[in-house]
Specification:
- With 223 residues, the chain is α/β, with parallel strands linked by helices.
- It contains 7 helices and 7 strands; from the N terminus they run αααβαβαββαβαββ.
- Strands 3-2-1-4-5-7-6 form a 7-stranded mixed sheet.
- It is globular, with a radius of gyration of 19 Å.
Length: 223
């Protein structure tokens, strides 16, 4: 006699583990990301998840040093995934002429704006919907994608849409945590852009920070 299972049949929707598996395979094989809704980020910032992480200071200091080295005097910096404005604080003084920080989290933007300085502005923007309309094409000297690429569904396509914002000598700065996990994404970045300088910071789980220009476009500042 067969026993009737008490487990309900699936409604046709993928189970959470299957969704997770698909996302993992997309990341590992295709270089795609795992988007999180704005509400998730808002809750984390309210809970203080991203407050006071000492290792982040070294990472942002490295990014700021790249901006100083390869950018013009007093550059226009677009910080994509700016969080609570940590990079803005590293760039204050003579390191930055204009700074625009954008992030999907309204909570992070509110916190960043409270500590904002002259020449800085912060905006809640979902970059997967496209580049911010208030940034003039051809005006950005350094577009920083800091810990954000692997949270985009299609990182390379999003970057392609930001290229028109770059000035003739403009460049990207990419920051990737645990770079070994993102080999497919890194291969895609290397096909599309020339990496002028690469540095790893932190111990254990490191960040890989790189300066990248469009193919055939040289940068000042040396290698």
């Amino acid at each position: 006699m067969l026993r009737t299972s008490s487990v309900k049949m699936s409604s046709g929707l993928p189970t959470p583990w299957l969704v997770s598996l698909r996302r993992s395979l997309r990341r590992r094989l295709l270089g795609r990301g795992k988007p999180r809704p704005a509400a998730t980020w808002d809750a984390q910032y309210r809970a203080g998840t991203w407050d006071g992480i000492v290792a982040e200071i070294e990472r942002h200091a490295c990014i700021a040093s790249f901006v100083r080295r390869f950018g013009p005097e007093r550059p226009f910096v677009l910080d994509v995934g700016c969080g609570q404005g940590a990079l803005a604080r590293q760039l204050r003084g003579d390191a930055c002429g204009r700074y625009v920080g954008i992030d999907i989290s309204s909570e992070a933007i509110l916190r960043a704006a409270k500590d904002g300085a002259q020449g800085e502005s912060f905006h809640a923007v979902d970059v997967e919907a496209g580049p911010p309309s208030f940034v003039t094409p051809g005006s950005v000297d350094a577009a920083v994608f800091s810990e954000v690429l692997y949270y985009l569904d299609d990182p390379l396509e999003t970057l392609r849409r930001f290229v028109p914002l770059l000035s003739p000598s403009g460049f990207f700065v990419f920051s990737l945590w645990k770079p070994a996990r993102h080999r497919a994404l890194r291969r895609g970045l290397c096909r599309a852009y020339d990496e002028t300088c690469v540095r790893e910071v932190g111990s254990g789980n490191t960040w890989r920070i790189s300066v990248a220009a469009l193919r055939g476009r040289s940068l000042s500042g040396g290698a």
